[in-house]
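Researcher: I'd like a structural prediction for the single chain below. Treat it as a standalone chain; there are no partners to consider.
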Amino acid sequence: MSYENWEPPAALRLILRAQRRPDQPHFLVLDEMNLSHVERYFSQFLSLLESNRGLSSSSKLSLLDADSVRLIASTLAAAQEHPLEKSVADELTSEKQGLTLPENLFIVGTVNVDETTYMFSPKVLDRAHVIEMKTPDPAAYLKGEAAPAGALIPADEARQILIRSAQRRRNGFWEKENPISILKEAASGTPFASELGNITGTLEKLLAGLQRLLEPVGFGFAYRTINEVCAYVATYLEYADPSLFNHDGKSVGWQAALDRAIFQKVLPKIHGNRRQLGESLRSLNAFLSDQPA
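Model: Treating it as a single chain, here is the predicted structure.
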């Protein structure tokens, strides 16, 4: 088999470029991920996402080993294309290193749920933030009316948030600090500093209550979920704009951010029939509806 005309996959080129530009966010977008079993074709990524948590950059486990990177470098050289990617592969080869998942790589996947697709397993959901897109209003669409934009962050400010996120991941910040310390540091010097006690108290009560209700029916959560809910809220606090997520004039911004974190990290894993869930959904609804303002 000849590799002279081999074209490196777009995902591989993206990862190589991300290695060269560590403070530039890179996005790997996978369309309709659940047309096949995600756990099969994405299993290595899922394992690395878990295994590399808390490790320094020099200790990261490789997505591709050093021999594979050397082969990639030689085929890129033969093709005389993609010079940036080739230079990164050459550097890794000279250092006898494999290709790791860079901290500035953000993976986004789209999903359609119908009778032709596969549902995600708890393992996949546990490593993702699930963002459900609202269905369109047919009447508004037929009239050509634009859908409500919702909360928006200017592109440059969003980029800075992602850069800081990549830097923290590179330094293992989220794994080295306890959640309350993370929230305290994020709120320092922001309009939320005076509310920190209320924020952490509400967060503690909410997570403890959810665990108490969900664990008996098999949907309890562990450290990763708790940490990522706190990381989401911490990022919101650090942004220091109480008007974000407060576009309806009724919500308190940090509470709306906490709602979104729970909706993305905890609720998507709940599934089953009435016999399995019993009265837990009614209890859950009553509990979530009674959060302090």
